[in-house]
Write a structure and sequence with these properties.
The protein contains two helices and four strands. It is an alpha+beta fold. The protein has a domain at 2-49 and 89-131: Helix Hairpins (Orthogonal Bundle), CATH 1.10.287. The strands form two sheets. It has a two-stranded antiparallel ribbon. Strand 3 and strand 4 (83-88) form a beta hairpin. The longest helix is centred in the N-terminal third of the chain and has 46 residues, at 2-47. The radius of gyration is 24 Å and the shape is rod-shaped.
């Protein structure tokens, strides 16, 4: 009877940890996608000072517009809480770098937590094998 109770306890813990790990993996995928987008945006802004003629700018969802940068010195960027400000290229790039650094830290934390959960799930498997 004690073995059955211990197996149930381990089973519940394993189910809980698997759910947590799936959620963390989902968050990790989203964070990686955001990081890629931030890198791409940084590269795009870095190339803007060289744009003198009309070029294509992405509007999103595979849609582009042919245009020429208005002043070639600044971009409008979300600075948080839905507030958008015009920032010189250098300041915009620095803001994006800070965001990328925060995303990279979150990615590392998620990967570390996923690894810990995976290790605990392996331990649970070993413990459960003792009772079977």
């Amino acid at each position: 009877m004690a073995n059955e109770e211990e197996l149930n306890k381990l089973s519940y813990e394993a189910q809980y940890l698997q759910t947590q790990m799936q959620e963390m993996q989902r968050q990790l995928s989203q964070a990686v996608a955001v990081g890629i987008q931030l890198d791409s945006t940084q590269k795009s802004i870095s190339g803007l000072p060289d744009v003198t003629d009309e070029t294509y700018f992405q509007l999103g969802a595979g849609t582009f517009i042919k245009a020429k940068p208005a002043n070639g010195k600044s971009v409008i960027i979300d600075v948080g809480a839905g507030v958008f400000l015009e920032k010189p290229f250098g300041e915009a790039i620095e803001l994006l770098k800070k965001r990328k650094s925060n995303v990279d830290k979150a990615i590392e934390t998620l990967r570390s937590n996923i690894e810990k959960i995976s290790k605990r799930l392996s331990e649970i498997d070993l413990e459960a094998a003792k009772y079977q």
